[in-house]
Amino acid sequence: MSRPHANRKANRQFCPVGYQPVTHFQLARSDTVLTTAYRLVTNLHLMCSETVETLRKIGKTRRATRDIRDAVDNERMKKSAEKLQSIERDLAVLREENAAMREKLKEAASKAKM
User: Fold this and answer.
1) Cβ-Cβ contacts under 8 Å for 10 (sequence gap 6 or more)
2) Taking the model in full, what pTM does it have?
3) pLDDT at 37
């Protein structure tokens, strides 16, 4: 499940340097100190963008892991339900056998009394 609101917020905070007004670049071009600062800011921006992308990938991986765990839990529950049904069927068969044995015992007891 994607979180578009969070993605938009991250994009606003780390918009590409190309969106900056051209005047910043022109000012940096005219002064060597500003050129160095501009390059550093550009590098910082790139590193932040990489960090944001890495965090997005981590979030995607965590969501996928959570989904897989949920799927495994669901499968376990299905198997538990199947086992419960099997036990209930076995119990019903045992009850029928016990009832049949009781009838045989009653018949044997009544024949013995005669």
Assistant:
1) 52, 56
2) 0.46
3) 82
